Amino acid sequence: MSDMYLHVGPVKTGSSYLQGLLWTNRHSLARQGVLHPCEHDNEMWLAANDIQDGAFLPFDLPEAAGVWNRIRDRVLAFVGPSILSHEMLGLSAEDHVARIAASLQYARVRVVVMARGLAATLPSPWQEKVKMADPSISWPGKQARWPQKACADGAAGAAARPASSLARSLLGAASSAANHHYRAVAVGDAVLADRAEEHAHELTVAVTPDDDEISGLR
After folding, report:
1. pLDDT for 211
2. Where are the beta strands (DSSP E) in 47-185?
3. Is this prediction's pTM over 0.90?
4. Which residues pair with 83 in a beta bridge?
């Protein structure tokens, strides 16, 4: 049975940096017996949108069709641990979670969730909006809009579900789909995928105290 480490974000917790490390070091991981199952550096984004039926995209993405199952098949065919990462998975609704769990019922899945301090997280979407959409919006202006948006959107305040909630949903759905071992481990400023102690160093993701960015994959 295959072991798979499924990193689900959430957004703005250094996921892109982690994915860059995984892609850049995929051959090194392979020499250590760990599979990064993507064939190009954008394939996991396609896979996430495939399993979610494009629910969080404002446009059609026909090239995503079937990508999740192709990656899943590589994982199941591999004898050893695999690692997948995309923060879009942290947005998953209940039906997406059930679909993910069912598709991976023949693997031992560990859900990996990152944590980032709120003070570092809040400026990040503002910086992204300045960079990608509206360079005129000021930081004080962005701050002034948050209370109004929180009231309008309710307690959630944002579209993304907390990744910890996703992990709990995945664990529950998976346990009902198959009698296998699913667990997510988060300790302080680090997240450690559940794995035998002698191999755990390969999949340790740390967060620096200075800027809450991921400092490395060791």
Report:
1. 38
2. 81-85, 107-112
3. no
4. 5
